[in-house]
Specification:
Radius of gyration: 26 Å
Number of helices: 28
Strand content: under 5%
Strand order of the largest sheet: 1-2
Number of strands: 2
Structural class: mainly alpha
Largest sheet: 2 strands, antiparallel
Length: about 650
């Protein structure tokens, strides 16, 4: 669930000998430490162990692992660890261990700016910036550095941007030791929750659960028209339920589905776009969503199960729009389903893989029904995966596979540790300079207090920030800056944060900087720009639905039962009409006028409830949509009759 970054082989060093053993020990230690904490083992210790002490230890292992395992430059050979990286690794351990060892004393004297604190704090800031540069690129690090510099030199700025500014010692100490800085909520979520869910995904791969998910998708959709694309959608959604990473989904699932779609007749750019959009949807698909979803729960002080439940209907609408367009594309180009010999039998698939449904059931039960905390639920699912995998000879994991899953979990965590630590750094500087409140006030002022205009401005901000930044960082920055403003103009807090999450996610498939699209286009050998624009069209629901649930929380299951049912039904029909208009096909090719009518009808059905007017609006949308559908069905039937008569009267 490393949100948005692809752990490519070139980014990591290929070590050997003692260096490789140490690297594996560090990566494995991250997973083991996170797993033990998620299971609550620390509660059995004979002494009190603060959460900040654990985060310090986790950060120490994370920084050391990054400086040992990740190259400083792309051109580096990567067959050894340079001496300066050994120094950084040791210093990173000292920075983290200082918090682990001395935090009980630090907690009672946080305001003291002693030399040891601000010196180590300065090193911590520099190490986090460098770690983020290595795993996520320079743009993210430069933005964070600009925030640090602003906290120091804010007194030089005019007007609304003016602030008193802080000393270097106070900035370094605050970012290092305060719970609003590096060791804040983002790193806390990564170290306590995300490690468990990443381990869950790796455990499934270790016992062959990924093969079961693909076979299940083949059984469900393989035989229908455009079957290869529908298999891609279903399998990507299933992968997303256990990984939540867009790029990982494209890399793993796309290697199989994209060639299959091309063989079935889909154009390369279409095949790549379908896979990119389907894989990106994994971040919003419960029960395991992207990292930002866990942060929503922390920011709003609600359970992750509530977040996942609220996200379920919008996620289904996202995939409904994609599925409808893929089906219509197949009809337009006459693409049949997969040959029967390529579709496995349901009986055989379930006989081999039914046991993998048990961990998924346990995860859903623990999160949604038993209301366990997310970390404990994730670890329960991990244990269940290894237990059920051991029941059958063909799925029984070897010691090497278990060890690899532990190490790969740690390797995947490196991106997340650097990004969440940097996100904490950014939040800390925004709070230290008090700019967050000022910008929130500015947004409300610019929008004139109008909720829709503020949502548009916020969406554009998400898409703009999403060009260089991953979803998690986009969400965190906008949650601090724009979240309070959205709530102030009347948007429900959960709807506001889901809105930010959705548009942060959409940036992954919005050109020009959209990594999942790059990866999918590379696999398909397709033109990037054609793939990107096609992906935006396929993901149309993600650009529309967030505006709907911001005003109409029934779509996130807030409201009466009748409101929720009506909202789901009308939104589903509306999304299908919009999808048909985007595909420009409904029984037969559509002209622009009829496409426009379908878009209008769909939007009318999606419009939120405004007193009693919504009945009239929905009725107009339904009547208009049905009129176009019936007109096209009649015209298509008459065309088929004429073609049949022409064939029968032929020579």
């Amino acid at each position: 669930m490393s949100d948005d970054f692809l752990s490519t082989p070139t980014k990591f060093r290929s070590l050997s000998g003692a260096s490789r053993i140490l690297e594996q020990l560090l990566l494995g230690s991250l997973t083991v430490l996170g797993s033990l904490w998620a299971l609550g083992i620390h509660h059995s210790l004979p002494w009190a162990f603060f959460n900040q002490q654990y985060l310090g230890l986790f950060l120490a292992l994370g920084l050391a692992s990054i400086f040992v395992a990740v190259k400083a430059r792309a051109k580096e050979t990567g067959d050894h660890v340079p001496w300066h990286d050994w120094f950084f690794a040791v210093a990173g351990v000292l920075v983290g261990l200082y918090v682990t060892v001395f935090y009980p004393t630090i907690a009672y004297r946080l305001g003291v700016l002693s030399p040891d604190r601000w010196i180590l704090g300065g090193l911590a800031v520099l190490f986090v910036l460098e770690a983020a540069r290595r795993v996520a690129g320079g743009t993210l690090a430069w933005i964070a550095l600009a925030c640090v510099l602003y906290a120091k030199f804010a007194y030089l700025f005019p007007g609304l941007l003016y602030a008193k500014g802080s000393s270097w010692a106070r900035i370094a100490s605050y970012l290092y030791l305060d719970s609003g800085g590096i060791l804040g909520v983002p790193l806390d979520v990564a170290a306590t929750v995300l490690v468990a869910f990443i381990f869950f995904g790796q455990a499934l791969y270790a016992v062959g659960g990924d093969r079961f998910l693909i076979d299940l998708a083949l059984v469900a959709m393989g035989r229908y028209r455009g079957g290869s694309a529908k298999v891609s959608i279903v399998s990507s959604a299933l992968f997303g339920m256990v990984s939540g990473s867009a790029v990982a989904n494209v890399a793993v699932n796309g290697a199989i589905s994209i060639p299959m779609m091309k063989r079935a007749g889909y154009a390369p750019h279409m095949a790549a776009a379908i896979e990119a959009v389907a894989s990106t949807g994994g971040q919003i698909m419960p029960p395991v969503m992207g990292a930002a979803a866990f942060l929503i729960a922390e920011f709003l002080n609600i359970t992750y199960g509530q977040v996942a439940l609220a996200a379920a209907i919008p996620a289904c609408l996202y995939y409904l729009a994609l599925f409808a367009q893929v089906d219509l594309e197949a009809a337009k180009h006459g693409l049949a389903g997969l040959p029967s010999e390529q579709v496995p039998k349901l009986r055989d698939v379930m006989r081999r893989g039914w046991i993998f449904l048990i961990p998924l059931f346990i995860l859903v039960y623990a999160l949604m029904i038993a209301d366990w905390d997310a970390a404990k639920s994730g670890m329960a699912a991990v244990i269940a995966v290894f237990v059920v995998g051991a029941l059958q000879k063909e799925t029984r994991p070897t010691f090497q596979k278990i060890l690899k899953s532990i190490q790969e979990t740690g390797r995947t965590m490196l991106d997340i540790i650097a990004i969440t630590a940097l996100a904490g750094l950014v939040i800390g500087t925004l709070q230290l300079s008090a700019i967050a409140f000022k910008l929130s006030l500015l947004l409300v002022t610019i929008s004139g207090g109008h909720a829709f205009l503020l949502l548009v401005l916020t969406a554009l901000g998400c898409l703009f920030l999403g060009l260089p930044l991953p979803t998690t960082v986009v969400y965190i920055m906008l949650a601090v800056l724009a979240g309070p403003a959205l709530v102030q103009v009347g948007v429900l807090p959960l709807a506001a944060h889901l809105f930010l999450f959705y548009f942060g996610m959409i940036s992954l498939i919005t050109p020009p900087d959209c990594l999942p699209v790059y990866v999918a286009a590379a696999i398909a050998k397709a033109n990037f720009w054609k793939t990107g624009w096609t992906g935006m069209r396929l993901a149309i629901a993600a650009y529309v639905v967030p505006f709907v649930f911001a005003f109409h929380p029934a779509l996130i299951l807030v409201g009466t039962a009748s409101d929720i049912v009506v909202a789901i039904v009308t939104a589903s029909f509306g999304i299908i009409l919009i999808a048909a208009g985007c595909a420009r096909y409904l029984f037969r090719p559509l002209g622009w006028v009829k496409c426009g009518l379908l878009w209008v009808a769909g939007l009318l059905l999606l419009l939120p409830t405004w007193s009693g007017v919504w009945l009239i609006v929905d009725a107009v949308g339904l009547a208009l949509g049905l009129a176009v559908v019936l007109w096209e069905w009649k015209g298509s039937s008459e065309r088929d009759v004429r073609l049949a008569q022409a064939d029968s009267s032929g020579p």
